[in-house]
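Worked example 3 (structure in, sequence out).
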């Protein structure tokens, strides 16, 4: 009896494993671009709507929306960071490529409640930004005030 139950279980398991699954179609940049070009929504509304549906593609969505609406890049960045704060660093990078000013990226982060250092631009060397060197202290002048040295008298 146990052997028959085992055989039925194995057959059922194999049938379930072989059954086709109906997953949502994969989303890629071409499909995102098609959705962006066909939409009647504003750029900000569109980026929020698409990120709500595909949060894992936030940066690609921002890239497509900004490409279609370059004049709204700063506003799209702000809306995207609010919609997907976990992707803020990637969104900031896409915004920089689209030439959104760093001040607008920082404002978008602050408006979304994100620490601006999380989206700050890193130097090309990959290290932490260097602090400007402090000017060397000036040496006191022992002159008479007019630029001439004091006499040895």
């Amino acid at each position: 009896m146990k052997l028959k139950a085992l055989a039925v279980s194995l057959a059922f398991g194999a049938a379930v494993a072989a059954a086709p699954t109906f997953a949502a179609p994969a989303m890629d940049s071409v499909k995102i671009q098609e959705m962006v070009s066909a939409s009647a929504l504003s750029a900000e509304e569109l980026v929020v709507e698409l990120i709500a549906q595909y949060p894992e593609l936030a940066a690609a969505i921002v890239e497509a929306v900004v490409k279609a609406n370059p004049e709204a890049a700063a506003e799209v960045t702000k809306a995207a960071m609010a919609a997907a704060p976990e992707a803020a660093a990637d969104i900031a990078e896409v915004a920089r490529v689209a030439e959104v000013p760093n001040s607008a990226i920082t404002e978008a982060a602050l408006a979304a409640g994100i620490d601006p250092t999380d989206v700050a631009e890193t130097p090309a060397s990959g290290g932490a930004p260097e602090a400007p060197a402090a000017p060397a202290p000036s040496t006191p002048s022992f002159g008479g005030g007019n630029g001439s040295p004091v006499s040895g008298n």
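Notes: Confidence is low (pLDDT under 50) at residues 1-25, 130-134. DSSP finds seven helices and no strands in the chain.
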